[in-house]
Amino acid sequence: MMHDAARGAISGAVGATLMSEVLAFAKNAGMFPGEIPHKQIFEQAERKVGLDDNIPDAVSEASWITNHFIYGIVAGVVYALLQRQLKQEKAFIPAGVVLGLSLWAIGFGGWAPLAGLYPSPGEDQKRGQGAEIAAHLVYGGVTATMHWMLGRMPRAVQ
Length: 158
Prior knowledge:
The chain has about 160 residues and is mostly helical. The protein has one domain. The chain is about 75% helix and about 0% strand. The longest helix has 30 residues, at about 55-85. The termini are close together.
């Protein structure tokens, strides 16, 4: 059987990939007034530490995307380890919803505003919040479903 952390990492990477597609669609549809919020957060972090003028645009772009995927992979591993402890794998759909909403709330309602990297949901323009919540629900749903599916694979395939 595949190790829980590996299942979580794979699941989180797939979830982050599909979430990125939702974010790109939302940006192209004009749902964000500027850049994708994840990119805005990363760029603000670069400014806070004084790196914004010293990093070429291509490196900055690759860095925020890499950061986004690492965050998704780590969240997938944490999800997998929690699922192991809670033994709630049959309830992967509700768990995915909770995962997605929790990550949105912790990030956009917690650490990002506290660090001064992004406005809190009450201060943010309402237009992009629906797209952000939808993208996080996609991440949670896909991550939870992939984790569940990988746990059902026969040993020979793993």
